[in-house]
Amino acid sequence: MSNVTRMLLFAVGFMLFIIALGGAVEAHTEKTDMFDKADQFIYEQDLDLTPDLIVEEPYTVSGDVIRQSIYNIDEMNVIIKIHYPNGTLSYAPGLEIEKTSVTDIDIYKEYQPTYTRAADGAITQIEYMPL
User: Fold this and answer.
1) Which domain of life is it from (predicted)?
2) How far apart are CA 95 and CA 118, in angstroms?
3) CB count, 10 Å around CB of 126?
4) Rounded Cα distance, 35 and 14, in Å
5) Which of 7, 28, 57, 124 is deepest in the core (most CB within 10 A)?
C-alpha cells in the first residue's frame, strides 16, 4: 500500500470515530434531558408524590408487628419491652419461643416504638407504648 492509501484509510477511520463520538454525546444529552423532563412531569402532576422518605409522627406499629418481632427475637438480637399501665412485659434473646405466650399483645392495637441504640448504631432495645 502506498502512503496516500494509508493516509486516506486513516482519515476515514478518524472521521468515523468522530461521528461515533458525537453520536454518543448526543445520546447521553438526550437521556439526561428525558430524565429531567420526567422528574419535572412528576412534580407538576401529583403533589402527593415525593421522592423523599417522610415518616409521619408519631410512628406506630400494630401488635401484630410486635408479635412477629418476638418470634424473630434471636435473629434481631434485641430486648423487647411492652409497657402497660399495670406493668411491663419484657422479652430477651434466647427465650423459648414455643413456651412463650404473646396473647397479651393485642394485634389490633397501635403501639409507639422507642429505639435504644449502641454506640455503633445497632438497635439494642425496643420499647413499645400502647396508644
Assistant:
1) Bacteria
2) 22
3) 21
4) 32
5) 124
Spatial contact of 40 and 51, defined as CB atoms under 8 Å apart: no
Helices (H), 61-119: 63-71, 73-76
Res. 125 pLDDT band, cuts 50 70 90: very high
Alpha-carbon distance of 120 to 125, in angstroms, equals 14
CB 127 within 8 A of CB 121: no
Q: What is the mean pLDDT of the chain?
A: 86
Euclidean distance between CA atoms 114 and 127, whole angstroms = 5
For residue 110, is pLDDT > 80?
Answer: yes
Average pLDDT on 38-56 reads 69
**Assessment of whether the complete model's pTM goes beyond 0.70:** no
- R_g (Cα) of the chain, nearest Å: 31
